[in-house]
Amino acid sequence: MNSLNYANMTNGPLTSRSSAKSRVFTLLLILLPIINQVQILGYSFLEFFGVVAMIMVLLRSHFRLRVSGLVLFYIYMTLSAFISTIIYGESLLTAVLSAARIIVIYVGIFEGAKELFDIKYAKTWFVRIVLVLCVLLYFQLVMYYLFGRQIYLIPDGLTLNYGSGMNSSLLVQRNIRSVMGGYIFRPSSLFIEPSYFAYYSSPALIILLFDCKLNRNNLYKALTISLASILTTSTICLVCVLFTWLLFVLFGRHNLSKGQRRSIIAFILILILALLIVLNQSAVQFSLSRKMTQLLDLGESTSSSMRLTRGWEYFGYMNPFLRIIGCGFGHLADYFDISGMGMKMSNSINLTSYMNSFTGVLCSLGIVGLILFLGGIIPIMQSKDYKRYMVVLLLVLMLAGAVMDLGSYYLIIAFLLSEQDMAEEEDIYNH
Questions:
Q1: What gap in Å lies between CA 237 and CA 201, rounded to an integer?
Q2: What count of Cα atoms within 13 Å lies in the side-chain half-sphere of residue 170?
Q3: 238-295: per-residue pLDDT in tens?
Q4: Residue 205 to residue 412: CA distance in whole angstroms
């Protein structure tokens, strides 16, 4: 495998923000979805990183905040969080802290993406890290199917940003019992859930297929990521892979050589063989049967049906005025409890885990919030590079799950907002 030098991956030379400060910011943002799975002193890494990043941004002499695009959406989100916190009976201090958290994260991460995000460095290392995660996922599969050992790569004894602060040891024990009870072994590399692997790896697939030279090396990388995603058996992973390759077939800049066609055919044959081996496992057959039942019966109270339909159902039950302005950012659980709707499969703490992000925005910030959000990202689709496809991917992820609760959302937005990338677009594609 050739070195992952991004100058070789793209169609031309790049200039880059190459300062140490920019590279530290960029690397931490790339690793955010992995590190943010763990709590640090009771806080998320996202909050620590947001504070440090905001300081870095504000210390730049030419920093200025332009009220456009996603800025309007986050101003509205901040006001919603502040006002609704007071309305729901919490203290003024809590309201201030709630609003301050949004401001810190927006200024630190999103404005930092415009000021500090080194796009050349980001793409190079992001693809490398995703490939390493794929290797770890393959290792998990080999250890299970050849040696019968369930290997989970999350260290024991950590407090997770998952399941109301679940201990990582309890999560591993739950997964082991699940497999022993007849469910399929689902590798997830360094992530807590297989779906998190999809949220993280899908942007790398977009970069490889729509932003890089389509040589054999990059094609192998894209196929490696695709196979790893499918082998997680996550529905979201499967949807992301199929959707991305469909976009590539329909809109990609590809004049495939005979060698590249042979590579794709070989990958398909290997994939079919791998699927036949996996499908021969009784646990896989049981899991597939259960998942098909869930998908065919959206009225059943399952996590799959909730993510797809329940958000729309609750939005329909909301007060007409609140449908317009939302019930308050961060207070979905409070509103549902007060209104008596509730959630059949979750309590008030993990409520949003069973709603997709699209309907989460719609319910908490209303039609106004959704319009502001779409108004901030849809114009990016006018770009002539990979960003238009990454916007489509983000919308698919938002409709499929709660991606806005995860670090991968901030990484995707950083790629979309990077001004350096927009300035270099003509240079990249004219060489």
A1: 9
A2: 9
A3: 888 888 888 887 777 666 666 666 766 676 677 666 666 655 555 554 555 555 454 4
A4: 12
Question: How confident is the model over 113-128, as pLDDT tens digits?
Answer: 888 898 889 999 999 9
Both tokens of 71, joined, read 């800025």
Phi, psi of 39 (to 5 degrees): -80, 145
Residues, the chain:
431
Phi, psi (rounded to 5 degrees) for 385: -115, -160
Q: Indicate yes or no: pTM above 0.85.
A: no
How many other CB atoms are found less than 10 A from the CB of residue 342? 13
DSSP for residue 39: E
Distance CA 24, CA 273 (A): 42
φ, ψ (nearest 5 deg) of residue 344: -70, -35
H helices of 280-418, where?
282-296, 303-305, 311-317, 320-325, 332-339, 357-377, 387-400, 407-417
Give CA–CA dist 193/314, Å, rounded: 26
* 38 beta partners: 160
Neighbours of 12 (CB within 10 A): 13
CA distance 92 to 227: 50
How many CA atoms, within 13 angstroms, populate the side-chain half-sphere of residue 412?
28
